[in-house]
Amino acid sequence: MSAPTCPQVLTHGTCSDPSCTYQHNVYSCEICSLVFRDEYALATHLGTRQHKRREQQGSGFFFCSLCNKYICGLGFFKQHIASKSHKVKAFKLGVSPTIAPEEPETVPGHQFCVVCNRHIAVGVWSRHCATPQHKGRENYASFQSALDEAEQDKNGITVSGEFDFGIIDGAIAASGKLLSGSIQVSVPTYRATLVGYTLASSKGQQTRSPFSVEIIGTNRTISQRTSIPFNVKVQQNHLGRFQDRLEMVFRDLQSQIGFLIARPLSVIVGNRSDHELLKPKSAYVPRKRTNRDPETEVIEGEIAPALNAIPYIDKLTWASIPKPLYDHLAAGSTKEVVDNLQKMYLPPVVNSSTYSKHFKHLMWAEEFQMERDLEYYDMHDIPLSRHSAFDAHLRQNTTYYYLKVPGLAEKRPSVLVGDRIVVQHTSATDKGRWYEGGVHVVLKEEVGLKFHRSFVASPSDRFRVRFKLNRIPMRRQHQAMDYTVFSQDRVLFPKRVHIENARAAGASRSRIVPKNMLIGKNQPQLQAVMSIVKSPPSSVPFIIYGPPGTGKTVTLVESILQVLSVSPTARVLACAPSNSAADLIAVRLQKHFNRQELFRAYAPSRNKNDVPSELGEHIYRNAAGHFSVPPLATMKRYRVIVTTCVSASIVSGIGMPRGHFSHIFIDEAGQATEPEVMIAIKGIADGRTNVVLSGDPKQLGPIIRSGVARALGLEKSLLERLMWSEGEQGVYEEDWGYGKSVVKLIKNFRSHPAILKFPNEQFYRGDLQACGDPKVINYYVGSSHLVDKNKKFPIVFHAISGKDDREASSPSFFNIDEVTVVKDIIRKLRDDRKFRTSDNDIAVIAPYHAQVLKLRTALRAVAESVKVGSVEEFQGQERRVIIISTVRSSREFVQYDLRHTLGFVANPRRFNVAVTRAQSLLFIVGDPSVLSLDPLWRSFLNYIHLNGGWTGPGPTWDTSEKVNEGGGYDSAVRKLALEDMNVFTRMMENMTLEEVKEDADADEDVDGNVDRPWNEVE
Questions:
Q1: In degrees rounded to 5, what are phi and psi of residue 250?
Q2: H or E element: which one contains 598?
Q3: If DSSP codes are grouped into helix, strand and coil, which group holds residue 150?
């Protein structure tokens, strides 16, 4: 145990007594502004809930003027004004308890750190100043101060001229543009010499600067009679944003003291009209979450008739979030909430008996976050328009109130028939009273609502609007978890013994004759089909492991056809997480079954216009025109029923007997959560039902909003958990389970070998074989769209240094410079008469929604039919040409870490999906200095550069050097940036302390360095 800390240090921060024998190290917690006598006490404090909550809430101080009290952290301030003592104080003073927090200039016992913008306890001031965080900010502040001073005219010398070239067209930039400046003296008797001039980019980096400087004439002495004119030229063949700094060194002829004057140089090479069209309409201001008035009274509206279209016989459990759990989810950091759930709610071991409890709590955590995320779409001061129309099914006039919903077409928010939206007059005095509107109509940009008959609204009325979470999908998953009659280890937690037992009980069957003759030529596909057909009842789940473009859905469909062909009594339930994936299965099956054999079940909320025309005779609508199901007896006669994972509740909900289906097939199983998949399995399977999962755990998994739920495993699909179980090994290992429990498809029918090579080696051990149609995959080989260095390599990386931006309250990023590049690529593809390319051949992928919107706006007049979407929208899809806009181009390496700089661009699964959509040609548009911070992206950029697919400014690193998979490149860039800042700061400090020695060859050396690159620091 260390000696106790000196009382003087604890009180005043220092001790001046040389004979003091106390410990002078300070053990402090800056977040809580507390000092401890020894390391043990500090360690104990750091583990307390108080510290963790304060760490989450923030350390800024706020002042409550009613209670005359200083409170650390905005979160704690909110808790304070909600406390009983505060409300009592407000009641006594006759004022509202809801007051705005005041930021005090001074806090008793604290000193304000200007560099860190925080109040620091006096007792820990010296310790705070020694922290790396403070020193880093101090260095940055010193650099900014030095830079500000360098850009000031001084000692009577004035450098005139504007050197922001603004936005210039690519053709002008390629030929070069000049701006003029001059060096003058404003003090009559003052004389100085221009000793030298240089660009900051000449100090040792690898990219060329587009700027150059020319001093006109031979005179270097400045006086009132003589000025020195000069030109700054920019010349650049590539689009993007470029910056540099002109540094001019002068010597005072009287004192022989040197000084420096700097001028920033900048240019945007691009399309001015794009920048004007797409620039932020308002500055980005982070949207702060505010306390919403609770809905204490909701006047129920009229629910959509479609909700009753399915004749369910079972009662759906409500499954509300338990109040104690809700309180824990609402307080603390993600890590703290995860710890609390593991300690207090979740079973220590997940097995077949604790399975349901575990996942129900994870679903509640996800629902909690979904509800909070919906608050983002709250609308204020919104009108409602009233319209009456004749309802042909009801044969009467029906009145709806229509609400315009921005982003409805983008499903931001997603609103379906049967959802609920609550509204309140902006002038309402009772803030807790709301009217509920049932969603009856969903159009492209607005929804039709029906309220309680007491609701009245005039055209001039304005409303607050809140979107309510449709809990039915979650309730269906809770219902599935409550089915305890099906908790079989052979499905939930399979082991080798389950495979061995099933094999022993199985009967051999003859070789199959494929319905799809191409499968007969594809050994892995044929192996998967035969394994599924020959698997006896009660087998473990069989997995069709389908990497991109290997035909997993084709294999699944063939397996269904063969199962039904071999066994006349077999019945199949086929599911997928999305309607589009389920429709694909049904469309491929409908060629083989009539309307009495195949049924496509839809949820009543499904938009009728989205149903493929081929499925017209395989659906059912009730008398009101809503999607429904035929009588139970008819349902039992169908050989195949296709539905989504969530709507699989229909078959059990209408009374289909457990065990009716001999097989349950789930396509794209990697994109569904376990509870979603269990709606079908736990809801309708019995001890003999076989389950087949098809998907790829290396591609995108389910979308989970809650960080708590992700940390606890809800993002891991059943497919992924079974394939990489941490428990019993071997069931799905390819060297043991191949053909018994899993088959990996290896023939890729989509992409050119060069496009497939990198993701194949990164994610699939190099097993994939390029087997695409040569006429398709080689279509652009030799075309002008490829880089001249290698006309056989159909991947092009467009290097561009742009600017990622945000606007209004949206946290989503966009990059106008990349939009221009994408538009130019598409225009060249469209204009090529030799290698003809239609809009439907092209797709653009962007990881940020704001960029998707900007791209659609820019392409509206060029190629409106080109599909633009997120990575998630393109999983399972393909195009001849894929263009990826990576967006991120942050330069704030000193301030932020890699995760902040790259965001979710650095997500391996997103990367894998994005780069494997292209058949013939893949373009990537991005900032290499940012992308290369991530090891995966650096490896990919190296691959492209070494194969001659790079265009634009070259890489700033050695692309032949082995990539460190552990990363650390962001730290190295930050370190280099700090070194550059420190060098510049020291140069400015030393400039006034030393004489400048004139170098006879200074001008010649400077001219030789003009085009050398530099590492930009901001």
A1: -115, 160
A2: strand 598-600
A3: helix
Contact 699, 875 (CB under 8 A): yes
Q: Does pLDDT of 955 surpass 60? A: yes
pTM of the model: 0.84
What is the pairing mode between strands 598-600 and 690-695? unpaired
Instruction: Work out the pLDDT band at 574, boundaries 50, 70, 90.
Output: very high
Quote the CA–CA distance of 985 and 966 in Å, as a whole number.
32
946 and 802 Cβ atoms separated by less than 8 Å: no
Distances (CA, A) of 168 to 172, 178, 482, 578, 926: 7, 12, 64, 46, 20
At residue 103 the predicted structure's pLDDT band, cuts being 50, 70 and 90, is: confident
CB atoms closer than 10 angstroms to residue 400: 22
Question: How far is the C-alpha of 644 from the C-alpha of 661, rounded, in Å?
Answer: 16
The first and second tokens of residue 988, run together, are: 């400015």
Identify the DSSP state of 375: G
| DSSP single-letter state for residue 996 | P
DSSP classification of residue 510 = P
Query: What is the rounded CA–CA span in Å between residue 803 and residue 785?
Result: 25
pLDDT of residue 945 exceeding 60 = yes
Residue position matching structure tokens 């502004």: 33
| pLDDT tens track for 249-288 | 999 998 899 999 999 999 999 999 999 999 999 888 777 6
Domains of the chain: 7-130 (no CATH), 145-270+976-1009 (2.60.40.10), 753-967 (3.40.50.300)
Question: Above 90 in pLDDT, residue 738?
Answer: no
Structure confidence at residue 45 (pLDDT): 61
Q: In whole angstroms, give the CA distance from residue 620 to residue 640.
A: 15
User: 256 and 342 in contact (C-beta within 8 Å)?
Assistant: no
What H or E segment, with its residue span, contains residue 898? Answer: helix 898-902
Single-letter code of the amino acid located at 245:
R
Amino acid 530: pLDDT: 94
Phi, psi of 3 (to 5 degrees): -65, 155
Distance CA 208, CA 1014 (A): 8
The residue among 782, 861, 778, 773 whose CA lies nearest residue 819 is 861
Residue 450: what pLDDT?
96
